[in-house]
């Protein structure tokens, strides 16, 4: 049941915390919002990509001559059309990528490394002709053995994907070919000695499958390489500037020669940060001299764009008989997919993030195998790690006969807690979330009936700051035009506009936000890492201060006084009994000179540290293994809920995706190492028929790094669900599950074996 946020601040606001109608709402519900597939040019042609039927094979030859000879085919490109690229790591805002690897992923070079790997691209008068042309391209392969499970890929006799790859052991390179790209080690305290002193030690192993972000809008792009050498791109992206950077580097052209226009986006969740079609469409456009549109089909999205890592995780914890954790050890092996650079870093950092653990050790391994290159997916790496840790925590609570909330409170991370990877938390809200769970109606309502159980789990995501820029212009009617570079995925136009409105003392509706292209605003990092409302909102706050200062100077001109004599309070400018509202002063701006324009750029190297706690009630059918969610509550510290409805939506959406991870979603591979369920008919995501209304409780413990206390909220909600569901399953049927998804066949098998 949703209600007013639980606030730990005494600050009162005029705009923040209200629920105005979203600024882009009318365009969205009337179908007038411009998505990339709505972009059209009179001379536009269509591109399609030829993809590998094999998960691992050497490319012996590619013959494109028959396709090029077809009437209506205007261009064909392969990896030979890339400029010479050297190894160079580019930071994408939520993860880094080696540009040579990125180019190889977009158009395969000497080998294909997964089914669906792009090999060649065609531009033709229409889509059907382009598809026909693909069938004319002849590729000769030498099929190689494939490896699909992370532990198998780590073996000495595993098929090697990259002969040049050597393991980076904390900066020291190994001496033989391997699939293990990176070995991380985080450690504090004396783990072995502390584990010896523990009264209770629990060690368990966990496995998780690869899952996809499953955004409704597939990847798409339009590229126009002008005769003057300027490249224009319209695309569905989480980061226009990141896209510009990748495209410019891959094509070896100046970033000033690339303009990226981010269209409306039909979901991303981290999967639309890396480029897939944009540079290929650009190559085709340069070759044929026309704008080129490319749109993926759903099977291409599943088979050729980044899912989350499959993982093997082992967790061992030691505790006193009173439930105080004294030692923890973790081993994580995440698959990176076809190229190095997966999510093992944040996964390893998050493993013990919810507890104050003085003695801890974490070993993490980033492993290549024959799947699509993994990408970020909402708190990338955290869900797998915390599924394992929170499952062990719940088992410890059951073993000791301690309420899981009390166990968490006894060990909760708080201000001053040092995480195993080094950072010390500032003020955070995990304890407050646990207290909210403890006093919630859900937790205090008895769960009755056979085969029913209740589970609880905590979760964490860092959230990032990074760089954002905005500019704003005061109109003579008292409204403000706001230009920003952050793609709006979850309503951030409104949450950013509300922060500017609060700063200026005007209504949210009087700010007109617009997401613009890379030529029209200063550099802005991706919409990802739960950063946009925090960081771009902070830039909006700064531009509000800039506008206020300029308007005080304009009022001083009208009143013939010094600007320091003008006072501002909640949208009113005053001096010695004279006063003007924001609108009244705006109307008089033509009398005072040039237009009032403000700008701000910020760079915040901080984590806003979001914690959440979820409660799940469910029912298990022991005859089929089917799980029915009966009730679900997501509790989270938002710092300050700028627009509570949007925060509730983020909590609900993340929880639903986490439940999908828990119960159904997985990349299912056949014996020939090809994906069997690359469609929404077969890849099972939760629908409205599978779930009850997700209740939310918003906790507000102000973030000290933001003037309004904002924390990011978008990613943490996906983290607790698998462990909460697993605990509820145990309490419903007495079976502990250690593998995701906990689908009906797996759960039925576990129940059947437990009866034996």
Gist of the model:
The chain is an alpha+beta fold. 28% of the residues lie in helices and 26% in strands. It is built from 20 helices and 32 strands.
What are its keywords?
globular; 7-stranded mixed β-sheet; Aldehyde Oxidoreductase, domain 4; 756 residues; 20 helices; 8-stranded mixed β-sheet; 32 strands; alpha+beta; single chain; 26% strand
Characterize the structure shown.
The chain is α+β, with helices and mostly antiparallel strands. It has a domain of 140 residues: Aldehyde oxidase/xanthine dehydrogenase, molybdopterin binding domain (Aldehyde Oxidoreductase, domain 4, 2-Layer Sandwich). The chain is built from 20 helices and 32 strands. β22 and β23 form a beta hairpin. The protein is globular, with a radius of gyration of 27 Å.
CATH architecture field of the domain at 465-604? 2-Layer Sandwich
Which geometry do the CA atoms define?
Answer: globular
Mean pLDDT: 97
CATH class descriptor of the domain at 465-604 = Alpha Beta
Question: Count the strands?
Answer: 32
Q: Could you give a short account of the major beta sheet?
A: 8 strands, mixed
Strand content: 25-35%
> What's the CATH H-level homologous superfamily of the domain at 465-604?
Aldehyde oxidase/xanthine dehydrogenase, molybdopterin binding domain
Strand order of the largest sheet: 11-10-12-20-19-18-13-32
Q: Structural class, from secondary structure content?
A: alpha+beta
CATH topology of the domain at 465-604: Aldehyde Oxidoreductase, domain 4
Helical content band: 25-40%
User: Radius of gyration, Cα only, in angstroms?
Assistant: 27 Å
Ranges with pLDDT <50 over ≥5 residues? none
Q: Can you count the helices?
A: 20
What is the CA-CA span between the terminal residues?
41 Å
């Amino acid at each position: 049941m949703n209600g007013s946020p639980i606030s730990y601040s005494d600050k009162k606001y005029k705009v923040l915390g209200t629920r105005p109608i979203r600024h882009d709402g009318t365009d969205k519900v009337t179908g007038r919002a411009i998505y990339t597939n709505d972009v059209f040019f009179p001379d536009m042609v269509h591109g399609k990509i030829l993809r590998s039927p094999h998960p691992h094979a050497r490319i012996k030859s590619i013959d494109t001559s028959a396709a090029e000879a077809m009437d209506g085919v205007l261009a064909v490109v392969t990896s030979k059309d890339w400029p010479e690229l050297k190894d160079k790591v580019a930071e994408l805002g939520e993860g880094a990528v080696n540009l040579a690897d990125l180019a190889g992923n977009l158009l395969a070079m000497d080998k294909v490394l997964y089914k669906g790997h792009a090999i060649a691209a065609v531009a033709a008068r229409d889509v059907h002709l382009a598809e026909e042309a693909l069938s004319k391209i002849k590729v000769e392969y030498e099929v190689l053995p494939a490896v699909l499970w992370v532990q198998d890929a780590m073996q000495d006799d595993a098929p090697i994907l990259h002969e040049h790859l050597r393991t980076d052991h904390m900066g020291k390179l190994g001496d033989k070919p391997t699939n293990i790209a990176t070995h991380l080690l985080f450690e504090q305290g004396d783990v072995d000695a502390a584990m010896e002193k523990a009264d209770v030690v629990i060690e368990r192993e966990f496995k998780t499958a690869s899952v996809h972000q499953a955004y409704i809008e597939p990847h798409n792009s339009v590229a126009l390489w002008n005769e003057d050498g300027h490249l224009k791109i319209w695309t569905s992206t989480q980061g226009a500037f990141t896209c510009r950077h990748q495209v410019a580097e891959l094509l070896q052209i100046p970033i000033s020669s690339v303009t990226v226009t981010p269209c409306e986006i039909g979901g991303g969740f981290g999967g639309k940060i890396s480029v897939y079609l944009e540079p290929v469409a650009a190559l085709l456009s340069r070759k044929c001299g026309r704008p080129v549109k490319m749109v993926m089909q759903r099977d291409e999205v599943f088979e050729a764009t980044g899912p989350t890592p499959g993982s093997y995780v082992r967790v061992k914890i030691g505790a006193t008989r009173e439930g105080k954790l004294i030692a923890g050890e973790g081993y994580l092996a995440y698959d990176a997919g076809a190229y190095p650079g997966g999510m093992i870093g944040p996964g390893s950092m998050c493993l013990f993030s919810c507890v104050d653990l003085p003695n801890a050790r974490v070993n993490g391994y980033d492993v290549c195998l024959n799947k699509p290159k993994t990408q970020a997916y909402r708190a990338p790496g955290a869900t797998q790690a915390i599924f394992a840790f929170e499952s062990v925590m719940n088992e410890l609570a059951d073993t000791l006969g301690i309420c899981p909330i009390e166990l968490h409170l006894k060990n909760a991370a708080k201000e001053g807690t040092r995480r195993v990877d080094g950072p010390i938390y500032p003020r955070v809200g995990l304890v407050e979330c646990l207290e909210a769970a403890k006093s919630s109606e859900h937790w205090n309502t008895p769960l009755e009936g056979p085969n029913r159980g209740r589970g609880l789990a905590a979760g964490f995501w860092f959230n990032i700051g990074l760089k954002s820029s905005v500019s704003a212009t005061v109109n003579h009617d008292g409204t403000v035009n706001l230009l920003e570079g952050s793609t709006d995925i979850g309503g951030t136009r409104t949450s950013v506009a509300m922060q500017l409105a609060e700063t200026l003392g005007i209504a949210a509706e009087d700010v007109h936000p617009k997401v613009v292209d890379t030529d029209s605003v200063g550099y802005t990092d991706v919409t990802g890492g739960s950063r946009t409302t925090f960081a771009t909102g902070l830039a909006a706050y700064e531009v509000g201060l800039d506008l206020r200062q300029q308007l005080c100077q304009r009022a001083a001109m009208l009143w013939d006084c010094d600007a320091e004599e003008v006072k501002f309070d909640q949208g009113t400018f005053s001096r010695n009994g004279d006063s003007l509202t924001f609108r009244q002063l705006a109307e008089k701006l033509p009398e005072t000179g040039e237009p009032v324009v403000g700008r701000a750029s910020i760079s915040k190297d901080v984590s806003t540290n979001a914690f959440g706690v979820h409660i799940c009630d469910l029912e298990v059918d022991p005859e089929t293994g089917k799980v029915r969610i009966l009730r679900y509550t997501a509790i989270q510290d938002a710092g300050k809920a700028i627009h509570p409805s949007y925060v509730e939506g983020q909590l609900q959406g993340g929880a639903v995706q986490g439940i999908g991870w828990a119960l159904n979603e997985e990349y299912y591979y056949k014996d020939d190492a090809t994906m069997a369920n690359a469609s929404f008919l077969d890849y099972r995501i939760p629908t409205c028929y599978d779930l009850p209304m997700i209740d939310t409780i918003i906790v507000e413990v102000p973030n000290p790094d933001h003037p309004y206390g904002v924390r990011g909220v978008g990613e943490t909600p996906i983290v607790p669900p698998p462990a909460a569901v697993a605990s509820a399953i145990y309490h419903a049927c007495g079976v502990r599950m250690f593998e995701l998804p906990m689908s009906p066949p797996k759960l039925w098998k576990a129940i059947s074996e437990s009866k034996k």
